[in-house]
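Our preliminary data section would be incomplete without showing what the modeling component actually yields. Below, a chain of 251 amino acids is followed by its predicted structure, encoded as C-alpha cells that our downstream tools consume directly.
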Amino acid sequence: MKTAYLIALPLLAVTLQLTGCKKDEVTTPDPTAPHYGTTQTLGKGTARTFVKLDGNENPDEVGIVVSESALNSLPSDMAELVLDLPAEGSKTPFKHAYVTYMPHGHEPDGIYNLPHFDFHFYKITNAERLTMTPDKMDEIGKAPDAAYLPANYVSAGPVPMMGAHWVDATSPELNGQTFTKTFLYGSNKGDVIFYEPMITVDYLKKATHEHIAIKQPQKIAPAGYYPSAYAIRYNATDKQYEIVLEKMVNQ
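Predicted structure:
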C-alpha cells in the first residue's frame, strides 16, 4: 500500500501541473476574422457592415451582411438603412454604407423595376450625403472628369440624398437581358463618392460564391485601398448573405 501511495503522488502532481497549464493557455485572436459594424433591423432579420484585414492589418474586404431571416421577411414598402463601418476600415476610402431595398424596383421601367437592393458604399459621411438636397440637382449631376470613371460608363441621372449614378452601358440589362446584378459608380459635384453593387432579391437568394471584376477608372481619389472585384456569396455557417468589395489594391 505504501508503494502504491508513493507512485500515486507523482502522478497526481503531473495531473495538477497539466491542469494548471490548460488554465494558463491564451487563445490568440484570428487577425483575419471579420470586424462588424452596428447591427440594424431589416424585416425580421438584420443587416450590418464588416471589414476583414489581411495578416498585415491592411484591408482585405469591406462588405454588407444581410441575414437569411431578413431576406425571407422583407417589408412591402421601401426600406432604407444607414450602416456605420467599423474603425478597421480606416485605410479604405469608405465612410459608411447606405442600403435601399426597392420592393418594386425603380426607373427605367422595364429594366430596373424588379425587387432589388442598392448597396451603396460611400466615400463621404452620412451628414455629407444628406446635403444633396433636391434644390442642388445641377451640382449633384455634374460629371466627373472622364478619367475618374471606367470606359463605357454613362449617366443614369442624379438622385437627391444619393448622388449622380453612372452605369456601364455594356451591362446585360441594358442590352436586352433581364436585370440580375450590375455595378454602378456615383458622384457629387464632379467627385466620385460611392461604389454600388445593385442586385435583385431573386439573384441574391440563389447566391453561392461569385466573384465579379470591377471595371476600373484611369484615376482614383483620394488615395487608399480600393476594390478590384466584388463578391456575392452565401455564408451557410452564419446563415447570411454577403455583398463584398474585395481584392483590395493600395492606390
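The chain has five helices and 14 strands. Residues 1-22 have pLDDT under 50 and may be disordered. Preliminary results of this kind motivate Aim 1 of the renewal.
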